[in-house]
């Protein structure tokens, strides 16, 4: 994976989080995905086809997702991970991928993206690629976020 | 044992596919018939590198793969050795892909899904040409 | 775009692949409309579509069915979805179904040029799939190894 392409996604997430008023999003680690199991109940997937092909998954715990949704809805309390917070998280994901795609375009890299799918469940096992998946961890006031990038370029 | 020649030597196959499961299925289809899988690769780039080391009698090559796709890898190999026998495997039988491949001397395709007998017969047919 | 006609090539491809690769015969259900969300049976493979149409294809089944499917496909005895080969087998089946289906679709609608993302697989408990503002339709395929649901979520690209 090209480091410039990875940076486009990191930029997308950080900028959009800033715009939405999420608190102090900082990157905490970067490494290869080691195992199939995840403790993150909320996983939002965007697929890419074009100069870059693969899947990008934004994942987090349910509590973090609800905190983010609440922030996005002006502080409205969110007590259940239902339609409203799910829609909000999909919107976040759309904005992040849109921003990332613009960054990539500036580099002359053109790629089409799918609409997002939000997968929610417990005791999840996931495999988003047959090649290596890069996991970038972030920390914010609302909780921890993970950007999983599995792309071939 | 269709994979054995008259002199008892095995036909040597290199299996290239980004899905380890498909590579496993190819082995299971061919090995019982006496074919020898002498090497495997998960992308076109590794395929080209491995090819130079092991010189198989025939290559099964998936079209859609990361890093370097199968058509490109097949083209590179054919440029170096036009006589190399290659069977392209694909779940998509786009007319455009087939036409483009023909231009590079890649004429043998086997559509996915294939039954074990199908891949055996295809390989035998290509080897005998 | 009529979703019920969009799903037809996927139903044909699925039926064909189950028969050819697994020797399993399928009894097709009706096309059902789905809302923005569906509950997974425990094991779901997803393939994204881009190009003239944008959306997702889902292949959904119970974990038990997924294990049986992998075992039939590979000729080995698997016992859990935690085994990577069970996930990979699901991915490959979905990949082939979609490859076959969109070859059909691209041939019928020239210029549509639909392309596929690599497959993702998710397995778990109380799992649901949500696509905001996208409607879906599904077809239940009944077989001896269990019920397999295929679900298509699509819109025309702008």
What's a quick, concise take on this entry?
The complex is a heterotrimer of chains A (153), B (129) and C (158). By secondary structure, chain A is an alpha+beta fold.
Strand content of chain A: 35-45%
Spans where pLDDT lies below 50 across 5 or more residues of chain B: none
> How many independent structural domains of chain A?
1
Largest sheet of chain A: 8 strands, antiparallel
What's the total number of strands of chain A?
8
Mean pLDDT of chain A: 94
Listing every helix as H and every strand as E from the N terminus to the C terminus, the arrangement of chain B reads: EHEHEHEHEH
* Lateral arrangement of strands in the main beta sheet of chain B: 2-1-3-4-5
Largest sheet properties of chain B = 5 strands, parallel
User: Rg of chain B to the nearest angstrom?
Assistant: 13 Å
| Percent helix of chain A | 25-40%
**What is the CA-atom radius of gyration of chain A, in angstroms?**
14 Å
Which chain pair has the greatest contact? A-C, 38 and 40 residues
Q: What percentage of residues of chain B falls in helices of 4 or more residues?
A: 40-55%
Given helix and strand content, the structural type of chain A is: alpha+beta
Number of helices of chain A: 3
What is the overall pLDDT average of chain B?
A: 92
Give the tally of β-strands of chain B. 5
CATH fourth-tier homologous superfamily of chain A: CheC-like
Describe the protein's architecture and organization.
The complex is a heterotrimer of chains A (153), B (129) and C (158). Chain A is an alpha+beta fold and 153 residues long. Chain A has a single domain (3-152), classed as 3-Layer(aba) Sandwich (Chemotaxis protein chec). Helices cover 35% and strands 37% of the residues of chain A. Chain A has helices spanning 3-20, 62-72, 83-106; strands spanning 26-32, 37-38, 42-50, 53-60, 111-113, 117-127, 134-140, 143-152. In chain A, strands 1, 2, 3, 4, 5, 6, 7 and 8 form an eight-stranded antiparallel sheet that branches. In chain A, α1 crosses α3 and α2 packs across α3. The longest helix of chain A has 24 residues, at 83-106. Chain A is globular, with a radius of gyration of 14 Å. The mean pLDDT of chain A is 94. Chain B has 129 residues and is of the alpha/beta class. Helix content of chain B is 43%, strand content 19%. Chain B has five helices and five strands; from the N terminus they run βαβαβαβαβα. A five-stranded parallel sheet of chain B has the order 2-1-3-4-5, sandwiched between helices. Chain C is built from four helices and eight strands; from the N terminus they run ααββββααββββ. In chain C, α3 packs across α4 (84-108). Chain C starts with a helix and ends with a strand. Chain A binds chain B through residues 53, 130-131, 152, and chain B through 18-20, 42-43, 66-67. β6 of chain A pairs antiparallel with β6 (120-130) of chain C.
């Amino acid at each position: 994976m090209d480091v410039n392409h990875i940076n486009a996604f990191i930029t997308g997430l950080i900028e959009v989080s800033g715009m939405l008023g999420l608190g102090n999003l900082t990157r905490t680690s970067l490494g290869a995905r080691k195992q199939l199991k995840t403790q993150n109940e909320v996983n939002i997937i965007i697929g890419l086809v074009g100069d870059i092909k693969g899947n990008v998954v934004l994942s987090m715990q349910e509590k973090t997702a609800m905190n983010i949704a609440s922030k996005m809805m002006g502080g409205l309390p969110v007590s259940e991970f239902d339609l409203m917070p799910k829609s909000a998280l999909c919107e976040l994901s759309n904005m992040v991928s849109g921003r990332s795609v613009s960054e990539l375009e500036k580099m002359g890299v053109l790629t089409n993206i799918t609409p997002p799918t939000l997968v929610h469940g417990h005791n999840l096992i996931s495999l988003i690629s047959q090649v290596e998946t890069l996991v970038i961890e972030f920390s914010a006031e609302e909780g921890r976020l993970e950007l999983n990038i599995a792309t071939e370029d | 044992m269709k994979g054995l020649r008259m002199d008892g030597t095995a036909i040597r196959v290199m299996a290239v596919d980004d899905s380890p499961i498909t590579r496993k299925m190819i082995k299971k289809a061919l090995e019982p018939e006496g074919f020898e899988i002498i090497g495997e690769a998960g992308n076109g780039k590794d395929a080209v590198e491995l090819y130079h080391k092991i010189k198989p009698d025939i290559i099964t090559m998936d079209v859609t793969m990361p890093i370097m796709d199968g058509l490109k890898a097949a083209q590179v190999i054919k440029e170096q050795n036009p006589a190399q026998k290659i069977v392209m495997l694909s779940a998509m039988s786009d007319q455009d892909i087939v036409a483009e491949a023909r231009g590079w001397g890649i004429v043998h395709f086997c559509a996915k899904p294939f039954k074990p007998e199908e891949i055996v017969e295809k390989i035998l047919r290509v080897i005998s040409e | 775009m009529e979703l019920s006609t969009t799903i037809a090539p996927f139903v044909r491809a699925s039926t064909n692949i189950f028969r050819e690769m697994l020797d399993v015969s399928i009894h097709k259900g009706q096309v059902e409309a789905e809302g923005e969300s569906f509950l997974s049976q425990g094991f779901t493979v997803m393939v994204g579509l881009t190009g003239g149409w944008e959306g997702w294809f889902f292949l959904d089944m119970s974990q038990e069915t997924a294990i049986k499917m992998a075992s039939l496909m590979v000729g080995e005895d698997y016992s859990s979805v935690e085994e990577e080969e069970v996930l990979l087998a699901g991915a490959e089946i979905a990949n082939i179904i979609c490859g076959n289906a969109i070859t059909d679709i691209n041939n019928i609608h020239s210029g549509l040029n639909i392309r596929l993302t690599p497959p993702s697989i998710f397995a778990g408990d109380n799992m649901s799939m949500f696509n905001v503002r996208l409607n879906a339709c599904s077809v239940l395929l009944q077989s001896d190894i269990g019920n397999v649901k295929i679900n298509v979520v699509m819109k025309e690209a702008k």
